[in-house]
Write a structure and sequence with these properties.
The protein is of the alpha/beta class. The protein has helices spanning about 25-40, 45-50, 55-65, 70-85, 95-105, 115-125, 150-160, 175-180, and strands at about 10-15, 110, 135, 165-170, 185-190. A five-stranded parallel sheet has the order 3-2-1-4-5, sandwiched between helices. Helix 6 (about 115-125) links the parallel strand 2 (about 110) and strand 3 (about 135).
Length: about 200
Amino acid sequence: MTSLDPPDDAAALLFDCDGTLVDTMGVYRICWRQVFGRHGFEMTDEWFTTWGGHSTQPFVEAAFPGRDPEFIAQVSREGHEMFLESTHLLEPFEHVLAVARAHHGRVPMAIVSGGPRAAVLASLNAVGIADLFDLVVTADDVATGKPAPDAYLKAIADLGVEAAACVAYEDTASGMASARGAGIPVVLDVRLPEA
């Protein structure tokens, strides 16, 4: 893995939450497998790996293509409710959190997540790191979630910085595509190599 230290002239550090700062993906995998199973979709690990970085609506639509918006919204609520009941199981990714702690108060930092605000804030609070960040942008704040660049574009605008001077931290292909689509040149993959 390459160093996660940003360039000295970085204007802002933008962190994904799920799978980047907080180890939520294992908990999400369990929750979504149960919720989807109740509705007749057997979620495989391969499917989850492919779709796990997307915002909720395209994620659920991929499991249930062609279903009506009311059904998609109901399944989405069920998944997030189960997740919110499970946040006590979450742990931070210390190798990424170390970067945020080292730069806290020195450079603006934001959370840029494809998840809903309630789940993102619950995750950050569960591991005690919400106060490290100047801004939290979630799928609730934009018209289109990841892999669209909207959330990153909003964070950049709200922080008042240039995209070209930002660094993004991500763990999925859709998240990296979102950051690059917003014009961020340095997008760091935080995933640790498989043991």
